[in-house]
Fold each of these.
Amino acid sequence: MELIDFIIRILAATAAGGALGLERESNNKSAGLRTHTLVSLSACIFALISLRVVENTGTGDPTRVLGQIVTGIGFLGAGVILHRGANVQGLTTAATIWSSAALGCLAAFGFYWELAAATVLIIFVNTAFKKADLWFLKDREKKKNSDKDNDFLE
């Protein structure tokens, strides 16, 4: 792989991770711009190292590194999940961190159109579905309050 290909791929990973990070940052989440950018960039670098080793030696399997990235990012994502009683917070941020790593891997393999489409779709899911979450939460609160009223009357 030429140096220019390496640079283009890490810049693409940086841009995609940064885009996810900006969305998270704008919603005041614990993992924002720097975290998502670094996760995407680092996943890209690890995958590029694997590709270079296979290219230079003619042996190896770059998908093994991808599997390790998926596992490793799972531990990082677990760090942002908070459990307080029946309340669990941070699942979407953890999933978005995982998504950042996937974007980095797409960039490493030079799947630029796929990278762009996935980035847009992930941001869409995080923004548009948030409104659906609020709607369900409001509905759940109404039901909970209705159940409390019914308990009081019994």
Amino acid sequence: MVRIDSIELPDFPLLLAPMEDVSDPPFRRLCKEQGADLMYTEFISSEGLIRDAAKSLKKLDIFEYERPIGIQIFGSEIESMRQATEIAVAAQPDLIDINYGCPVKNVACKGAGAGILQDIPKMIRMTAEIVKASPLPVTVKTRLGWSEETKFIVDVAERLQDVGIKALSIHGRTRMQMYKGEADWTLIGAVKANPRMQIPIFGNGDVDTPQKALEMKQRYGVDGVMIGRASIGHPWFFNEVKHFLAFGTLPEPPSVEERARVAKRHLEMAVEWKGVRTGIVETRRHYANYFKGMPHFKEVRQELVTCEELDRLYALLDGIQSSRLIAV
């Protein structure tokens, strides 16, 4: 068993990474049903919460079936992050997570997300204030450093633990790498191997097969893995990993019928939660993986990602489900 303060997780838990416009309630529901042990909201702007911005407040929506669930916040100002923590706690998640890992320009170059890796003392002060403001466990997601020359994660991890965080997720790239190249897990392993570390350490980056998850467990000793891009359009990934860890074999892949059924349900839930237009647009990124490897699918996929009529989308997915549109 892995414990984050009072939160109990199974041995080697699988975490759904917080992803903007991806890890929303509809997708989280599918991942939970398929074996995700701990999930996070999309990252939420501290300034947006303080200003009562509708988009930020909407991201606070969590549901009982998702637990344990963490709300992830980001920002560059310590006082704003403290106030945002109080607002997030009021939404009654199980934990508060701080995003110190987002590399995108309009976040990192404003000193938020991975941007704070250029100012480690501020990162530690901010974390300490958030821990003080939260009666819930506080966790952190971060990267190895800002650049190749500043990969100080072993020391940073100690300092974050010292100010009270209860778990740490580390993406094996620097901010400057963005998502390019291969994730370097050696420093994640070094953090885990540090005898001073007493909190769970979760690894993140390039866990795109069940075999890779097992390799990271065995080679680096991490307490669990955080899964991001491999789950997009493939919520079955969590149970596939669990099956492989338990039996050493891969389960049968989901059938065409199952893929289409889940894709349609995903769309239905997205439309219900976000409205028709946004639900249609934000579900599009999942279709390529929902139907990856299907023969004769290119034209159908093109219509799925361009169609703006909900009834037509449902008809397309119904057609796939009955196998009229795909030769298998």
